[in-house]
Amino acid sequence: MAGSEDRKVEIAPHAIALTIAGSDPSGGAGLQADLKAFQQNGVYGMAVVTLLTVQNTLGVGKVEMLSPELIGEQIDAVLSDIPPRCIKTGALGNAAIIACVADKLHAMRERIDPSDCLIVVDPVMVSKHGDRLIDDDAVAAYHDELLPLADLITPNRFEAERLLQRGIGTKIDDLLAATQDLQDFGPTAVLLKAGAVDGQQMHVFTEPEQLVTLTVDRYSDAHTHGAGCSLSAVIAARLALSSPQDDQATRMREAIDFAIAAVNHAIHFAPKYGHGCGPIESRLLHFGD
């Protein structure tokens, strides 16, 4: 191509992220959404498959979980060869898979400095419509094994209620208290996707030094498929782009602010694909400034 020799391409060679998640063949959620978010942010993405779904914008028809042994072998193969700067988990399916993933991540943490590979856990257990996706044994596995390893967890309101085993009120004080209670399960930081509050889309973020509410405009568009997956994936991507030598709290807050803005843009400009709840516009997930 004429003039191509004058082009400059900037690549962050150490910006590598791994998603451990389920597959959505329609491309709106799951590991497909995660890889798109990684790519849009200039991050090299890798994926360990935990489960297969038969789904589209109209709903999920079938779920087939992979064996914990096969999932563990995938994780070993990746981590022994290409070390990521950040790992995020999505749909894990059952207690045995959660325990397997936690065991592999714990072993990794014993070999490296924790700041060299941050862990973001999106505890996919309840859909945005309130439908339960995992059983009580899996919730207990999250409590006991995976949440204590996390640098950040990103539950929605329904998932937070299931983790806390109680309802969460709609007042700001209720949301702040719930977010702090979630931190008692062991993660360093919590980002609660609180949903609609006073006409705004609200998130509550807490870590050892701060407790804040983060709001953006709320759009009435129903095409939000994959928004939660994409939020945690953009956070993981921005963490992978940051330096392990920098202050972790600063890295986390900057990644979260960027991701919330990026996903909000992607919801606003959703392409309206499919006949149901369509995907967000993943091609805009690098616009978070």
Automatic annotation (TrEMBL):
PANTHER family hit by this protein: HYDROXYMETHYLPYRIMIDINE_PHOSPHOMETHYLPYRIMIDINE KINASE THI20-RELATED (PTHR20858:SF17), PHOSPHOMETHYLPYRIMIDINE KINASE (PTHR20858)
Protein name as annotated: hydroxymethylpyrimidine kinase
GO molecular function: ATP binding; hydroxymethylpyrimidine kinase activity; phosphomethylpyrimidine kinase activity
Residue ranges constituting the Pyridoxamine kinase/Phosphomethylpyrimidine kinase domain according to the UniProt record: 24-280
Protein encoded by which gene: thiD
Involved pathway(s): Cofactor biosynthesis; thiamine diphosphate biosynthesis
InterPro entries tied to this protein: HMP/HMP-P_kinase_dom, PM/HMP-P_kinase-1, Ribokinase-like
Record keywords, A-Z: ATP-binding, Kinase, Nucleotide-binding, Transferase
EC number assigned by the record: 2.7.1.49
Source organism, top-level taxon: Bacteria
Coiled coil: none
GO cellular component terms, semicolon-separated: cytosol
Enzyme type, top EC level: transferase
Gene3D superfamilies tied to this protein: 3.40.1190.20
GO terms under biological process: thiamine biosynthetic process
One Pfam family in the UniProt entry: Phos_pyr_kin
